[in-house]
């Protein structure tokens, strides 16, 4: 940057750098698989030296957690967009928007879903990743539980439901539908249809 006759080093946006690294990680994961993701591979994809990348992330686990958090933030944005597209702020609409984001409904979600499956396998073998994955799973179930409880109070779901149990069942169903899709046993459209059938069964009869 030029300032009053002198070249001043441009100020580095560290958040932007970290985001760029996270994007590079997902590109490597989509192309080669999450198990092939290494600090060196991601540094090359991000166009920086290994030493520079390690300035931001000292370990592979640190980098992985940040990248997953980055993806989760993008998912939250997509949920908000989906709710707007569905219209209204009805609790059942919010619940449906969250659940549909868990399914492989488009190419972006399909790639993210496959990476998420790989991440869970890695988390089962790594305590730092495992701890993060458990917290994330509990947070998701808590979010769904809250939306189910709100929908019940609004008269949009059967008041006899157990919010905690139904939240766990929704997560389990979504996990199973994603697995069926990745194995070629279900189409993306069918996963949505089956989830809609389940949600309809939770509705209070009119």
Automatic annotation (TrEMBL):
Sorted UniProt keywords: DNA-binding, Repressor, Transcription, Transcription regulation
Keyword Nucleotide-binding: no
Organism: Nonomuraea solani
Entry-linked Pfam families: TetR_C_6 (PF13977), TetR_N (PF00440)
Matching SUPFAM superfamilies: Homeodomain-like, Tetracyclin repressor-like, C-terminal domain
InterPro entries tied to this protein: BetI_C (IPR039538), Homeodomain-like_sf (IPR009057), HTH-type_TetR-like_transc_reg (IPR050109), HTH_TetR (IPR001647), Tet_transcr_reg_TetR-rel_C_sf (IPR036271)
Name under which the protein is recorded: DNA-binding transcriptional regulator YbjK
Start-end of DNA-binding region: 38-57
Keyword Transcription tagged: yes
GO MF term list: DNA-binding transcription factor activity; transcription cis-regulatory region binding
Domain HTH tetR-type residues, every copy: 15-75
